[in-house]
Amino acid sequence: MPEMETNVLRGEEIKVLANEAFKAHKYAQAIDLYTQAIDLNGQNAVYWANRAFAHTKLEEYGSAIQDASKAIEIDPNYSKGYYRRGAAYLAMGKFKDALKDFQQVKKISPNDPDASKKLRECEKAVMKLKFEEAISVPESERHSVADSIDFRSIDVEPQYSGARIEGDMITLDFVQKMMDDFKNQKCLHKRYAFQIVLQTREMLRSLPSLVDISVPNGKHFTVCGDVHGQFYDLMNIFELNGLPSEENPYLFNGDFVDRGSFSVEVILTLFAFKCMCPSAIYLSRGNHESKSMNKIYGFEGEVRSKLNETFVELFAEVFCCLPLAHVINEKVFVVHGGLFSVDGVKLSDIRAIDRFCEPPEEGLMCELLWSDPQPIPGRGPSKRGVGLSFGGDVTKKFLQENKLDLVVRSHEVKDEGYEIEHDGKLITVFSAPNYCDQMGNKGAFIRFEAPELKPNIVTFSAVPHPDVKPMAYANNFLRMFQ
Predict the structure, then answer these.
(1) What are phi and psi of 422, to 5 degrees?
(2) Angle, helices 79-91/95-108, rounded to nearest 10 degrees
(3) How confident is the model at residue 132, as a pLDDT?
(4) Sequence-ordered list of residues with C-beta below 8 angstroms from that of 74, at least 6 positions apart, any chain
(5) How large is the average pLDDT for residues 372-394?
(6) 85-108 in b/e burial notation, b at 16+ Cβ within 10 A?
(7) Are the C-beta atoms of 399 and 429 separated by less than 8 Å?
(8) Cβ neighbourhood burial of 166 (10 Å; 0-12, 13-18, 19+)
(9) Mutual orientation of helices 95-108 and 113-135 as an angle, nearest 10°?
(10) pLDDT band for position 341 (cuts 50, 70, 90)
(11) What is the distance between the alpha carbons of residues 137 and 125, in angstroms, rounded to a whole number?
């Protein structure tokens, strides 16, 4: 049999294995197998579109768009290519680009009811976006919503039986009662929710963009990665490692909200601990602490459902106050995403970032929130389509120039809850086990003991939660593609 025919047949065999891996939620494995099939027969549009879908599942939307575009290039009438690319654009909040692709799907498959439904939803989303753009107030003319809220004037009904804050002090008793209420799916009164969020805002506003943390000799410090609205797993972290306190401090490294459907409970719990004792808990901004992500991935809808519209604006404002990075004992640099597209960035440059805004699409702040490490040296395009990928040489140089020992970052699901890369100089920690109820990954946190600050990594599995699906409050349109 000629080699070409053999390659085609072998490619089909590998595609079957890749599809099985995909069905088992082993998306990275599926990508590797689709890549092998593509290497054998790169002119098969199906392989490229399937690999695009697997990239989408890993939130690698930049790579998904590239693969789907390749499928379209090979076969301009292959509707799935446009469909996959449209879904990836959608996940990035690029509704207008998504609309063009779904129009193309409809053109190729005019009688497909699913294509018609998705096109209608996409048209609605674009119309809504245009309307919001038309009525939006320019940044320079915006007033702070926080300044218009007087929580003390909000009455608490006598029948309210939940946690109460007496006066201005948020106590451990209150936080524990609130967490118990949340475990039982009870809501916190809006008066107290406003009080917690407003007090947290005052605290965060006064912090620099890069916060220095000092851990005394003989003491420990815990760093957690993404929690993503998985409140019951957050409670499990506190079970395993103790509640936040001055003696048991934590840093939560961004992406507190979205995806999981208990984001309101997570954010109010973290903020309440911050109010109770500012040195018990430190909070970093993640790429999901932003309006564009919250609009798509569920937090905005959840806030509307459990609180009200004013809180949507208030959280957006408070997220813009979150610091962008932390340094522990002048040794460990902790950031949500990663490092930079240019060499020579100093800690003083990070301190100087004006962070009080929605994350821009490029520059230092964007890269801190969005970048990912790569195994090869140098820099490359981001799999996500935002930020960049950086190699071990970039990590090493950044650490040397800033007299640091280690980078700790989050932002990526890892099977074991963590991964050590770049010759041990970079650790990814991710604290949302069985992410989105389907990834099957463990969660992890890192305990550092001073003075050595040697990372001690603890992994844990997901715990049960009430039957509310991830993305339950997300943009309807996006849920169609989950």
Answers:
(1) 50, 55
(2) 160
(3) 77
(4) 43, 44, 45, 48
(5) 97
(6) bbbbbbbbbbbeebbebbebbbeb
(7) no
(8) exposed
(9) 150
(10) very high
(11) 20
Q: Cα separation of 95 and 103, whole Å?
A: 12
DSSP secondary structure string, 166-210?
A: -TTPPPHHHHHHHHHHHHTTPPPPHHHHHHHHHHHHHHHHTS-SE
- Kindly tell me if the per-residue pLDDT of 277 is higher than 70: yes
- Per-residue pLDDT, 480: 61
> Which distant-in-sequence residues (6+ apart) come within 8 Å of 85 by Cβ?
52, 64, 65, 68, 69, 72, 101
> Can you read off the two tokens belonging to residue 47?
């392989």
Enter the tokens of residue 257.
């909200």
DSSP characters for 376-399?
SSSEEE-TTSSSEEE-HHHHHHHH
Supply the DSSP symbol for 458.
E
Mean pLDDT of the chain: 94
**Tokens coding 106:** 């409809």
3-state helix, strand, coil in the chain (%, to 5): 50, 10, 40
Instruction: Name residue 172's amino acid.
Output: L
How far is 31 from 166, CA to CA, in rounded Å?
54
Could you give phi then psi for residue 466, rounded to 5 degrees? -55, 160
Which pLDDT belongs to residue 90? 87
- Provide the token pair at 167: 């006066």
pLDDT range class, residue 122, cuts 50, 70, 90: confident
Catalytic residues: 288
Checking 241-248 for CB contacts under 8 A at 24+ apart, the result is: 241/445, 241/447, 241/458, 243/172, 243/273, 244/273, 244/277, 244/280, 244/281, 245/277, 245/280, 246/277, 246/279, 246/280, 247/219, 248/220, 248/222, 248/280
Residue with structure tokens 């809850």?
Answer: 417
pLDDT, residue 143, reads 83
Tell me the C-alpha distance between 232 and 396, whole Å: 37
C-alpha–C-alpha distance, residues 103 and 122, integer Å = 9
Q: Are 326 and 214 in contact (CB under 8 A)?
A: no
Q: Which of 376, 366, 370 is nearest to 422 (CA)?
A: 376
Q: Which of 195, 184, 182, 189 is nearest to 161 (CA)?
A: 189
- Cα–Cα distances in angstroms (integers) from residue 269 to residues 176, 181, 224, 246, 253, in the given order: 9, 11, 15, 16, 15
